[in-house]
Amino acid sequence: MNVLSAADFGRVAVVMGGSSRERSVSLWSGEAVLAALKSLAIDAIGVDGIPALLTLVQAKKVDRVFIILHGPGGEDGTLQGALEAYGMPYTGSGVLASALGMDKIRSKQIWQQLGLSTAQFCIVTPSDSAQSLMQNFGLPMVIKPSQEGSTFGITLARTPDELETGLRVAREIGGEILAERLIDGEEYTVTILAQGDARAAVALPVIHIVPKQTFYDFDAKYLSDATEYLIPSGLSAQAELAMQTLALQAFHAIGASGWARIDVMTDRTTGAQYLLEANTAPGMTSHSLVPKAAASVGINFAELCRHVLASSFKPNQITGAG
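and the corresponding C-alpha cells:
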C-alpha cells in the first residue's frame, strides 16, 4: 500500500515507557517520535505501557501502533502477540522475530547454524562457576543476560574477580545468561530499513562507535557527549559492503521486518566481522544510532519516523486499520 497522506495512518498510538529496565530510554525515544509524527500532522498520541495501550485498542480508539517500548514486554514478542490477536497494525518485526531478536542466545544459535559469523559463546548454567567457565571457555569473556538491552547487566571479564562479579550481576537480573568471547576490536552498527514491502530491506551506511572509555555502556550510549559516531565508518568500501551484507543476512535470518539495528564487532588483528545482536525496536533518542544513519543519507528524523510507521502496513496486520 502506498501511504500518501497523514490521514492514511489514522490515529497512531506511540507506546513507550513500560516497566522494563529500559523505561527511561523508551520514554526519551517515545517523546521524540511522538513530536516528530505530530510535526507531520499525523494524529498521534503517547501511551505509557502495555495495559494502557490495550485499553485503547479494545475500545477501538486507535488505528495502529508505533512500538518504541524497549526490552522485555515491548520488544520480545509479548506486545506484538497481543496486537496480532486484535488485528492491530504495528511497526517493526512480528512475534517470532521480536522474540528471537530479544533472545541473544537463540539469535546467535540461528546465525551460527546458517554460517553467519558470531563470536564464540556458551550458555551459562546454574551450576557453572567462574572457575569452571575459565577452564572450559577461557578469559577474557563477556557475561550478558540473554534478554536485556541497553547493556544492562553486561560485564567485560578479563580477570577471575571480574568474572565472579559479572556472574553475580547477571544472576541477580535473572533469566538465561550468555558467556561470549571478548573480541579485541572495534564496534559498529548497521541500521536496516524496510523498502517498499516491509519484508524487503536495505542497509544504511555503517556507523563506527568510538566510546571515550573502553566499554560502550549505558552512559556512553545515552548520556555522554564524548562518544564519537563516525560516518563514514572508516572501513574500506569492501569491508563496509561485507558488514552491510552480514547485517542484512542476520536481519532476514531471524525473520525481522520493518526496521532494526544490527551490532557488529571487528577483530583488531584480522579484521574479521562478528555479529553481536539484533535490536528490533531500536532507540530514537538524541544520542541514538538509527537517526544518525538515516541523516547520513538525507532522511531527517520526522521522515524516518514516518518511514518506520509506514512499515505497519503489512498484509497480515492491515485488518485493524481505520
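(Above: one complete record from the training split.) The radius of gyration is 19 Å.
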